[in-house]
């Protein structure tokens, strides 16, 4: 019987460093033996890690062995330099391009769902990805499609029956479709290559062959490892096999391939040793036959801690001894935990731990987390110290400048080039880089100002019309920009868009805006490869609706990783969980220790129902929980360990990871919290206590304005600082971009209708509808105004017509609309204002009518002198200062509230309060007194412009941030020096 060479490296030992040390030891007598050796590893990142380990340990020049990724959990890892020879020997066609495969499967899904319910292109793509994963699972687990034929349980839900029927059809259609292209699935090809390699080595044993780092493997990989373990110079090195576990506990790990009466549905797949137990079965090797690799490294943790962690992960039946067997606290002396309040705080804690590591010369640190959002946050935090940390997963192309530009372009086109989306494209840092950038940005800023306020008509033509109206000097520049974007707009105007045509049009538009800068650096080259693949294979997906385009492009950008080849910090890293199984740093930070993150929630399979997976003996969805547990145990083997979690995520309280709970249940207070690190993280960004005081500037009287409007007078009295900022500082809040029509716009429309009606229609109720529809036509491009406000405006105008009829019956008739007036006072103050409407009675008396679509001033405002507008307009009327209105006494004042809702309109007299009625002449006299005192104090005197002097009457908040209102309003007055 051939010797079996199977070893394990314990979890407390740094795997790749120990592996490299052992190989150097085994080949030290022959300088070329290592160069002739072949090392098989789980993936490409493991290859890079082992290469780095050889460099660290060599101490000089070294010829490295051939290192080949053969795939561990992921079925799409290539077989490196073996591929060509083996494919030729086995007469294998090429594997189908991944992009082509996704699009072909997406199209099959779309055709299937067309007969049941509508499906978007992005939904079809997601289902296609999961369909491809199901194909790969069947291929790598070597399950024939005929196994599905007799499966028809009575209690299966209807949707699962329909899905299974389609799955059977696709399984029949897919191989002939691939054959017509002379291609095969990657998983099928890899399986054949692995079997061919195993047969070759079994027939002709090579030199030194080492397979290392594999845990949860598919049958083809296991067969290859079985051959390697029995080669004369073959070695299999397993990661973290628990050889100290009792036979009883080992036997309690349920595994249907080793236990004859075990049910596949009850496998202990969530246990960290389950995958290795399965692998040993496929290798036909007993656990007792596995030897220790026998090499220690400088990055090893205490062996006793690994034993205790293994106890923490023991099967449930063996956890009872936790209460009776004390834990040696010294084993966890260098293990700390931090529970942060939020994910942002957790990222800050981790960043500080990484930064603190660099204070010790030569010390290394690594964050291990499956949470990509946490990893990106940490990378952003350490960047504040000028540190770029190496993230093994790379950066999604979507968040790099070239990817962001392509996504911004497609989103802008899908939205009809609305202002926000358009400016996001034009302001992008890659657009017009170089000497032309400053001039370009000047034009873009002017365009920004021109597009402020209610959004223009959709499309490039609507933007052009707005530019012509607001800034005609910008029109030639805008014409050039519109010409660049016009092909994209015309494409999105079609009912259906072809994927290849879409990508080509996006490429041409992006190239026209950015030139060759778009394709520079690793992220630009990654985008170029993606664009080439989508243009080449995009025709395999039938045309789709234009609104599906942004999500479709975003999906491809998100799944494309960009890795910088150099320039990262050599002592800091961010690992995925698989890297933690193989790589080690002095400080291992295990981040995101919450349930649903580590381990991740099992993702439901939309194609293979749980009963079907059990029937086919496929790995259950819980298999990855066991692998995550194994990686957790391996990461805890470091010299120093920091465990972190947040009490809540972005939306709800979070539950600690089951691994976190088990470890703390066993170790208890032996794992100490790092309160100092948490306190430092909270203090780092803590804002100092603010003691802002209410602003009250008091410029010299000679600098104060001498002209004031009737509405500005109200602002000056209630909120003098707001008046000061607007009038003296000349500050204006910019209108929002791409804004909906607001209540102010509705009020403007109502005023415009009534002004035109009075001026041109002689206030004849029969002519009012003509002016209503003419004004509403101007707002036909705004859905909110058309659908919600237009009916309200019509109802309000019906009320106006009926009220005017009653008003005229009392002897009143319109004298002027939008009547402007100016009054120069002896003190040097000039008062100006505009009356919405002035009516005259048969006796010659005047009535001031003010339209309100919002809130009508209360009696307290009127009586307290805070609603000065009506009284001041009455003063202008009495003095004969309103244009088109002859001088006369003011006999009435009315507010017309034109809401248009269930109460379409209401006329109110500001001079009437319950049973009390103030005469107009008395109100005007009182208003004059308020106004003249206000002028003496604030415009002619040295009174302070105090912010929110009367907050209950201070309207608007344009200047609240400038006045820092939230920092002092409502707080108790602090003592001096507090």
Description of the molecule:
Helices cover 45% and strands 11% of the residues. With 978 residues, the chain is α/β, with parallel strands linked by helices. The strands form six sheets. The chain has a seven-stranded parallel β-sheet. A six-stranded parallel β-sheet has the order 3-2-6-7-1-8, with helices on both faces. Helix 9 links the parallel strand 6 and strand 7. The longest helix has 27 residues. The C terminus is likely disordered.
Summed up:
Helices cover 45% and strands 11% of the residues.
Secondary structure category: alpha/beta
Distance between the amino and carboxyl termini: 87 Å
Total number of beta strands: 25
Oligomer status: single chain
What would you report as the Rg, rounded to the nearest angstrom? 38 Å
* Count of individual helical segments: 35
As residue ranges, the low-confidence spans are 72-77, 974-978
Largest sheet: 7 strands, parallel
- Strand arrangement across the biggest beta sheet: 11-14-10-15-16-9-17
* Overall pLDDT metric: 86
Shape category: elongated
Give the proportion of residues in helices. Answer: 40-55%
How much β-strand is present in the residues? 5-15%
Which labels suit this protein?
single chain, 978 residues, six-stranded parallel sheet, 35 helices, 45% helix, elongated
Question: Helix and strand layout, with pairings?
Answer:
Blueprint: E1 6-9, H1 15-26, H2 33-36, E2 38-41, H3 44-58, E3 66-69, H4 82-90, E4 94-95, H5 98-114, H6 121-140, H7 158-180, E5 183-184, H8 186-203, E6 209-212, H9 219-229, E7 234-239, H10 247-251, H11 274-283, E8 291-292, H12 303-312, E9 335-340, H13 343-357, E10 365-368, H14 372-382, E11 390-391, E12 395-396, H15 401-414, H16 419-426, H17 437-450, H18 459-470, H19 475-492, H20 499-514, H21 521-537, H22 549-558, E13 561-562, E14 572-575, H23 577-582, E15 587-590, H24 610-615, H25 623-635, E16 640-646, H26 658-667, E17 672-673, H27 675-684, E18 707-709, H28 710-718, H29 720-728, H30 743-761, H31 768-777, H32 783-809, E19 812-824, E20 830-841, E21 846-852, H33 859-863, H34 869-878, E22 890-897, E23 906-908, E24 912-913, E25 916-917, H35 920-939
Parallel strand pairs: 1-7, 1-8, 2-3, 2-6, 4-5, 6-7, 9-16, 9-17, 10-14, 10-15, 11-14, 15-16, 18-20, 21-22
Antiparallel strand pairs: 12-13, 19-20, 20-21, 22-23, 24-25
Helix pairs in contact: 1-3, 4-8, 5-6, 6-8, 8-9, 12-26, 13-14, 13-27, 15-16, 15-20, 15-22, 18-19, 19-20, 20-21, 28-29, 28-34, 30-31, 31-32, 34-35
